[in-house]
Task: structure prediction
Amino acid sequence: MTPEKTRPTRKIEIYGNKFVLRTDLTGRELRDIEYAMYESVGVKKTSNPNKPEMSFSTKDSLIRKEEAKLRAVIVSVNGDNDVVNAILDLPGKVYLEVIKIVETETDPKVEPDSDKVS
Result:
């Protein structure tokens, strides 16, 4: 295993909260984001071995994918490295802006409200 390289980051502030973000994601991180969605898929045996039954929890898969995106993009929140819990503990308006920024970093079609980010 190669040693962790120092990766470029950028600092932003949203409603007084300080965030450190990665400036780019690796292919592995993007793959892990997609993989997180499929962790909620289950397969169950049926009486016909050629037709297993699949179960899929949309809610769980979307939450897992969102959390994977947060962990991939955000390095720290107000100095806290437990980014998912730190973000979930912030006021809703901050959380929503963070989600927009994370979506922008993982999907270039999404734009954050630039007047709320400095």
Summary: The CA atoms of residues 77 and 86 lie 6 Å apart.
